[in-house]
């Protein structure tokens, strides 16, 4: 604690007043401007107490210096000469409180109040700093992920969309406040809207697959996972949806299915026997010609070893053939 007081008896008076209130602290006493400035520059104090009238110095100047060099430190005037108008003016200029010397019993509550206010102010600063860091953290994540992230209100209107939405639907500014279901394919829209309302009602996020129908008529296949955001009372305030464009995968799967279907169509109509085995040598496909040649229906031979089709005296050639086929892929 830093105490600016030129009168030693008044300094003892203040110290005893604090002790009577159960406040014990290490007090550094200074008596003039030079020693006061040196103390401010030298160390950090939890509280500054100052007389208002100091020979060659004054309380207003002391307050101004404190606000410049230690702006977070609470400042209390303890004076017998300060008037009400001056006291009010010092509060406007940043003093935490003032106590008249003939009302020294008010010093203890004033000090506790000042320290409590400082603690609360510091907690608020920490909370604001933490919030800024979280906002920045979220911003950096949202700007660098390829997934589509949207925050909707309980009516389904967009409050936030990540930058990844821009390539599909537009910027966050363009989408803000718009219907979150407008671009969903008409055949999927009501199903997804129903899942949204279920999430709002139960608080349980839903997985979904649907399609976006874009302005140019193209279709994008989307997979999404919903979740809820709750307010400080635990009530659901928003819905967050993380989605992924899986169009390339869906098209690749469709192409593979079509290719397999073409193969099976050819295999079914082929006059030659076609038998397909996996890397372990077990039968996975068998066409009609193979059934006619070997006398077994496909369901009878699936998962059986391909080696069963060969007579035992061809074991050596059979094994070499299987090894060659496996190595060749």
Description:
The protein is of the alpha/beta class and 329 residues long. 46% of the residues lie in helices and 20% in strands. Helix 2 runs parallel beside helix 3. The mean pLDDT is 87.
Main attributes?
329 residues, alpha/beta, Rossmann fold, Beta-Lactamase, 3 domains, five-stranded parallel β-sheet, five-stranded antiparallel β-sheet, 11 helices, elongated
Strand order of the largest sheet: 2-1-3-6-7
CATH architecture assignment of the largest domain = 3-Layer(aba) Sandwich
CATH topology of the largest domain: Rossmann fold
The number of helical runs is 11
Tally of structural domains: 3
Let me know the CATH homologous superfamily of the largest domain.
Response regulator
Shape: elongated
Largest sheet: 5 strands, parallel
Helix content: 40-55%
Percent in strands: 15-25%
SSE layout:
Elements: E1 2-4, H1 8-20, E2 28-30, H2 33-42, E3 48-50, E4 53-54, E5 57-58, H3 59-69, E6 75-79, H4 84-92, E7 97-100, H5 107-144, E8 148-152, E9 158-161, H6 172-175, H7 186-202, E10 207-213, E11 219-230, E12 236-245, H8 247-269, E13 275-277, E14 283-286, H9 288-294, H10 298-301, H11 315-328
Parallel strand pairs: 1-2, 1-3, 3-6, 6-7
Antiparallel strand pairs: 4-5, 8-9, 8-12, 10-11, 11-12, 13-14
Helix pairs in contact: 2-3
């Amino acid at each position: 604690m830093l105490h600016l007081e030129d009168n030693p008896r008044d300094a003892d008076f203040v110290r005893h007043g604090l002790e009577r209130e159960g406040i014990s602290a290490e007090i550094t006493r200074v008596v003039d401007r030079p020693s006061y400035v040196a103390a401010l520059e030298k160390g950090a104090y939890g509280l500054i107490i100052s007389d208002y009238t100091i020979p060659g110095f004054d309380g207003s100047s002391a307050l101004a210096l404190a606000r410049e060099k230690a702006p977070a430190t609470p400042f209390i005037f303890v004076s017998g000469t300060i008037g009400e108008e001056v006291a009010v003016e010092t509060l406007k200029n940043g003093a935490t409180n003032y106590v008249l010397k003939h009302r020294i019993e008010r010093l203890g509550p004033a000090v506790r109040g000042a320290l409590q206010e400082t603690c609360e102010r510091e907690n608020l600063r920490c909370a604001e700093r933490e919030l800024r860091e979280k906002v920045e953290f979220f911003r950096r994540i949202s700007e660098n992920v390829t997934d589509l992230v949207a925050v909707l209100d309980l009516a389904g209107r967009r409050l936030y969309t990540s930058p990844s939405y821009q390539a599909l639907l537009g910027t966050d500014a363009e989408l803000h406040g718009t219907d979150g279901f407008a671009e969903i394919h008409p055949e999927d829209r009501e199903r997804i809207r129903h899942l949204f309302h279920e999430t709002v009602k139960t608080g349980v996020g839903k997985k979904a697959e649907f399609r976006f129908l874009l302005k140019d008529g193209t279709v994008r296949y989307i997979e999404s996972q919903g979740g809820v955001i709750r307010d400080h009372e635990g009530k659901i305030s928003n819905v967050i949806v993380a989605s992924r464009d899986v169009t390339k995968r869906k098209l690749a799967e469709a192409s593979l299915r079509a290719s397999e279907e073409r193969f099976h169509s050819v295999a079914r109509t082929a006059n030659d026997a076609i038998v397909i085995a996996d890397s372990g040598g077990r039968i996975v496909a068998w066409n009609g010609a193979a059934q006619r040649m070997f006398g077994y229906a496909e369901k009878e031979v699936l998962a059986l070893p391909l080696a069963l089709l060969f007579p035992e005296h061809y074991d050596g050639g059979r094994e070499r053939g299987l090894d060659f086929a496996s190595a060749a892929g």
